[in-house]
């Protein structure tokens, strides 16, 4: 999808360049100049939107990496709490139900870690007495917050990307209509035919152009023996 967007943008840039090169033809009438300027502005707008879109991709990647790091810290802290909990002399039911989960989603991990913190925080002194680092529960709470924040940043980046993509499509659709109008102007301007019209139509083509060597070879027709040509195969009708 993004490749097609880039190809459309390249086509619109080429078409705008052709119109700028022959501005004297399109600007001969105020309406023609307005249409040409609209295409140029649309191209500049999409260029800005593509930069914005690329920035959102980078933001999402950074948020994903922060999520991974926070998830690792969260699991390490939870593992330490569960391991030390086996030696803490408190309510047996409380200790027995503390287990480290298997593979779970980020949302499930946040919920699990939050519940674990709520259980253990009132008994922090007992856990520290059995070897839990004094700042580990704080690290657990910080990791929960970090993962929540990174998840929110991921969601915001996805929303910005989707919104930018929609804006790009809208502007590019308008550019297609604008180029069609510019073609009509060129078609009905004697000074523009046929060179300008041809260049504009070639420029607006979306997608890679085939090189001469890339064209599929034409299959040769099966060879036929011309009538009256003697066969090189010995006839079986002749006597040996």
Brief sketch in words of this structure:
The chain is mostly helical and 240 residues long. The protein has helices spanning 2-21, 23-26, 30-85, 92-96, 106-120, 124-129, 136-187, 195-203.
Can you describe what's shown?
- The chain has helices spanning 2-21, 23-26, 30-85, 92-96, 106-120, 124-129, 136-187, 195-203.
- It has eight helices and no strands.
- The relative contact order is 0.15.
- It has a single domain (2-203), classed as Up-down Bundle (Ferritin), CATH 1.20.1260.
- Helix content is 70%, strand content 0%.
- Spans where pLDDT lies below 50 across 5 or more residues: 214-240
The global form is rod-shaped
Number of domains: 1
User: Separation of termini?
Assistant: 73 Å
Q: Percent helix among the residues?
A: 55-70%
Average pLDDT confidence is 84
Based on DSSP secondary structure assignment, what is the total number of beta strands?
0
- In CATH, the architecture is Up-down Bundle
Q: Give the DSSP E fraction (strand runs of 2 or more residues).
A: under 5%
Q: What is the string of helix and strand elements?
A: HHHHHHHH
What structural class results from the helix and strand content? mainly alpha
What integer value in Å does the Rg equal? 35 Å
CATH class: Mainly Alpha
Number of helices: 8
CATH topology: Ferritin
* Biggest pleated-sheet summary: none
């Amino acid at each position: 999808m993004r490749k097609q967007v880039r190809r459309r943008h390249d086509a619109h840039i080429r078409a705008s360049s052709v119109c700028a090169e022959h501005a004297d033809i399109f600007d001969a009438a105020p309406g023609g100049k307005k249409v040409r300027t609209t295409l140029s502005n649309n191209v500049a707008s999409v260029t800005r939107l593509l930069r914005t879109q690329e920035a959102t991709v980078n933001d999402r990647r950074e948020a994903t990496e922060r999520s991974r790091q926070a998830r690792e810290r969260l699991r390490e802290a939870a593992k330490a709490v569960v391991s030390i909990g086996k030696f803490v002399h408190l309510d047996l039911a409380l200790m027995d139900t503390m287990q480290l989960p298997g593979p779970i989603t980020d949302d499930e991990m946040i919920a699990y870690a939050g519940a674990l913190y709520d259980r253990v925080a009132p008994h922090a002194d007992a856990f520290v007495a059995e070897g839990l680092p004094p700042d580990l529960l704080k690290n657990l709470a910080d990791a929960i917050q970090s993962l929540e924040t990174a998840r929110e940043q991921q969601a915001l980046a996805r929303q910005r990307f989707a919104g930018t993509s929609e804006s790009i499509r809208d502007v590019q659709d308008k550019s297609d209509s604008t180029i069609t109008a510019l073609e009509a102007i060129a078609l009905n301007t004697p000074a523009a035919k046929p060179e300008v019209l041809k260049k504009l139509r070639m420029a607006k083509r979306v997608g890679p152009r085939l090189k001469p060597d890339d064209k599929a070879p034409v299959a040769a027709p099966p060879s036929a023996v011309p009538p009256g040509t003697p066969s090189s195969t010995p006839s079986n009708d002749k006597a040996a």
